[in-house]
Amino acid sequence: MIERTAPDGAPTVGVIGGGQLARMLAAPASALGIGLRVLTRAADDPAAQVVADTWLGDWADAATVAEFARGCAVLTVEHEGQTRSDAATCPVHPSPQALRCAQDKLFMRRTLTEYGYPGPRWAQVTDVADVVACARNWGWPVILKAPRGGYDGRGVWRVADRMSAERVLADMSGGLLAETSGGLLAEECVPFERELAAAVARSPSGQAVAYPVVATTQTDGICTEVVAPAPRLSDDRALAASHLALSIARDLAVTGMLTVELFDTGTDLLINELAMRPHNCGHWSIEGAITSQFENHLRAVLDFPLGDPRLRAPCAVMVNVLGGTATGLTGAYRHVLARDPQVKVHLYGKAVRPGRKLGHVTLLGDRPEPLLVRARHAADYLSGRITE
Ligand code: ADP
């Protein structure tokens, strides 16, 4: 029997939900000498492969969560579905109340509007007539979103006319719509120039730090590239974006990491959505920041002093490795690692499926363009998209 509890009374952080985010918490937990416990539903979970104290169980079951939380100093949630974190006897960060804004896009829009935060025009819609009424005000296309259960662009539809709105609503009569009681979220289609993200860490005692604002590229709704700091963003606008994220974290009493995804229209910064956990937009920080988003998430939920979020180099780029033709991705290591000794590769131990996020690569340097060329080459070679 292996003793799996943290030594010397060090606290254990319990993570509800596994996946690559929980997996990437393991390295800073190990460095800080704190315990990490993961609750997942899948034995082949990316976190289960590296976290010895992994529990297989259902986070929607109160008794399972209560048992899982026993012995944890704090619970945190890497999962945006319904969990019974309220059944835990230890503190939960972020709190279920705060987390609701990251779990339910309609609730998020309502809350941010009440606080006066900038966002696209939006409405709650239940049928085609509602969508057509939105289009009359905002013009086509209209963006429709499932309030719950979507990720990586699943649950987001750009509808160009009445007929495509009808199709989406009909297709949704089961599945994602079944999870939503009050209909769909409709948003105006924002003519943005680019997408940005502002991430902050905030602790229960109110200490907060802001990461450099990054530029993100989404391909088919999936975040595929990140550049830190966002190129050609004036100091004033970067400050405005960080200020938005810090204010939201304070107003919603977010504890842990908060990432605010933003649309940059050239003149305005509009909020797209919130994530209350480490986020794909912050993976660059593992090598690129003095303190990574994963370490600061742990420090924040434990109410330890937060670490310096600043860049270690003038620029960091991250490119995701998406599933392609290659099956055993490490087979490409001889080429990828030899070709570019500065590239840092992270693979998540996931089975290959086309388009699935399997890992990412990071490079640090002076200017984004040449770094992106190198990072794309490494990511494409790993996924089998290119062979030279
Ligand atoms: P997910 O929760 O699946 O990440 P998002 O709500 O972030 O979904 O939307 C995915 C992508 O769809 C965004 O990154 C953006 O590119 C596009 N998108 C979402 N909302 C809008 C909008 N109102 N106007 C224009 N594009 C949008």
Explain this structure.
This protein has 388 residues and is an alpha+beta fold. It has three domains: 7-92, 3-Layer(aba) Sandwich (Rossmann fold), CATH 3.40.50.20; 121-188, 2-Layer Sandwich (Dna Ligase, domain 1), CATH 3.30.1490; 194-383, ATP-grasp fold, B domain (D-amino Acid Aminotransferase, Chain A, domain 1). Helix content is 31%, strand content 25%. It has twelve helices and 17 strands. The chain has helices at 19-32, 62-69, 96-103, 105-115, 128-138, 162-171, 175-178, 235-251, 285-288, 293-301, 333-339, 368-383; strands spanning 12-16, 35-40, 54-56, 74-77, 122-125, 142-145, 156-159, 184-188, 194-202, 208-210, 214-219, 222-228, 256-264, 269-275, 315-322, 344-347, 357-365. The strands form three sheets. Strands 9, 10, 11, 12, 13, 14, 15, 16 and 17 form a nine-stranded antiparallel sheet that branches. The protein has a four-stranded parallel sheet with strand order 3-2-1-4, with helices on both faces. Strands 5-8-6-7 form a four-stranded antiparallel sheet, sandwiched between helices. The radius of gyration is 21 Å and the shape is globular. The N and C termini lie far apart (48 Å). The chain binds adenosine-5'-diphosphate.
Total strands = 17
The name of the CATH topology of the largest domain is D-amino Acid Aminotransferase, Chain A, domain 1
Distance between the termini: 48 Å
Largest sheet: 9 strands, antiparallel
The CATH architecture assignment of the largest domain turns out to be 2-Layer Sandwich
Into which percentage range does the β-strand content fall?
Answer: 25-35%
CATH superfamily of the largest domain: ATP-grasp fold, B domain
Work out the radius of gyration. Answer: 21 Å
What's the overall geometry?
Answer: globular
* Total number of domains: 3
The number of distinct helices, counting runs of at least 4 residues, comes to 12
